[in-house]
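Bug #77: duplicate submission created two jobs. Keeping one. Sequence:
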Amino acid sequence: MLNKYLDIAPEVKAALDEGRPVVALESTIISHGMPYPQNVETALKVEEIIRECGAVPATIAIIGGRLKAGLSHEEIDYLGKTGLAVTKASRRDLPILVAKGVDGATTVATTMMIAAMAGISVFATGGIGGVHRGAEVTMDISADLEELAETPVMVVCAGAKSILDLGLTLEYLETKGVTVLGYGTEELPAFYTRKSGFGVDYRMDTAEEIAKAFHVKRALGLRGGMLVTNPIPEEYSMDADVINTAIEKAVAEAEEQGIHGKATTPFLLAKIKEITGGSSLDSNIQLVFNNARLAAAAAVELAKLSK
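Kept job's structure:
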């Protein structure tokens, strides 16, 4: 059992034992998503926001081969300083990293896995991975989508990153039976922007509605998670033409340089930040804060229903 390799932080374990709300957070955003020290400042601020909203944060990572559900400030700082030298860990990487006793920053997929092992039902992130552009040739499809189909965790995000093929990502999720909810919207948000031109399955207007939907899914015995998409706040939303132009340039450069696999997303995000003069990073930080608030509110409501 992988659980023997799992360490749950005392604060997180106490909350889970008492049926109090807990929100999982990924660590790839710390090591691969932002430069130091903004990555650490953002991670600690997200934890603070979750506490202010009445839940307990559980940042998840692999440290020295141990699966961690809840990190100390020192561990978050360590991941932030080590940065790209930390392995970006998806499902396939877990057994190797644990066997070798080394570090890993968890993607959406591995954060869901470790959260589920620990008994955490709600997870806040920036954006999920999905079907990459040109996947009909490359077969580059994020493991996040398979995890959403299998693992019973609600994922709150700002949609799929707009570097992806959003239409195919939604088709894949539909095939896998993953319900996609829009918080206050009927349109899939596209990470940096509020609109994508693609619809979600259902609109939900309150955290209570979202929690009830997930509670009923579990009560029905249906496997897998649920995707809650939360548009970036209007004041931080980027101009669609500006960001789409930046994405096109970044994708073309990635193709020229032969970037593929798990190196693709960090490369594209860094290149988009460079092209937009850093404004994409500011938007990224704000949407993560926004998702943390909604995830905490949903976790609070879910805890009430689970009693």
